[in-house]
Amino acid sequence: MFLLGFLVLTVSNRPNRLASRWLGIFLCATALVLLDDTLLVYGIYQRWPHLLGWNDLFLLVMAPALFLSIRHFTRLETQPIPAQAIHFVPAGLFALTSLPTLLLPGEQKARLLAQSISTGPDLQDWIIISLIWLQAGAYLAVSLYSLHRHERRLPLITASPEPSALDWLRHFLYVICGFWMVWILSYYLPILNWADPVLYLLGTYYLGYFAMKQTEVFPFSPAQKTALAGLDTPIPATEPPATPASPTLAQDRLHLLAVMETRQPYLQQDLSLPALAEAAGLTPHALSYLLNTGFGENFYQFVNRYRVAESQRLLTDPSLAHLSMVGIAYEAGFNSKTAFNTAFKKITGLSPSAWRQSRP
After folding, report:
1. Are 82 and 37 in contact (CB under 8 A)?
2. Spatial separation of the C-alpha atoms in residues 45 and 37, rounded to whole Å
3. Greatest CA separation found in the chain?
């Protein structure tokens, strides 16, 4: 965890830089907390008791750091630094209240350690541990909700959501939830203590693989990210109410149809809501409103409807019979065969191969 945290923190040109830095802080904080068991098992605390307790300062840092990493992975806008610092107020208060104990002489700390080993946690320790469990569980729940919200927003801004879906991060959160449950149960079922290091090791390798190969979640310019901020609902509240039959909306609808027919922007594999909005001379919010109100579709549905229609034309063209399904997918604007099959079957009810075979 120390090594992975160091790599994530120090590679400055990594995509999703802020999210990666918070992820690195989470990994380093978790490594410091896990180091506490190592120092105890190998007798380091017994030899240098003045070290006792300092690792505990990071117990309330882990969950907020993980949440802020998830937030930066899933949000277009950057949260102000004071708003991020609020999440670490409990950690600061815990450090202040722990300071008198941390500054005790080594001999007195050694006696407290021996007493804790012989008698186990007292009532005060159980209260602190329970609050830490509660904080971790709350932040995990909010992190999972943030990922769910991110997945719901992707069809509004991209026609190819797969690269930005963060499936690996959702699965890693599930692993962290497993850690959290084992962490709690191990206090009541000591037999589970053997599972902790195994799970942490496997989870770290899993995270390391994906964290080091991640791509940019939102490959937009700063201006485009600003324009997309707040685009979480199908119809932004900033737009005036309208109906599909209103003159302005009808004109914008005809103009967008003309752009799609003449320029064929849907053939671009990296087409996004800001790019199409620029081609149509609209703001991203105005285009999203137009698609939802004028067409009854989100961006993903609108663009892929054109791509599927193009792929149907290609599938029935005798001169293109030599193309594989992957070739058809790329020619129609899809960036993968999986995305092609998913969109095609959702619109036509058949796979591309079955649809081709059903043609006379």
Report:
1. no
2. 10
3. 90
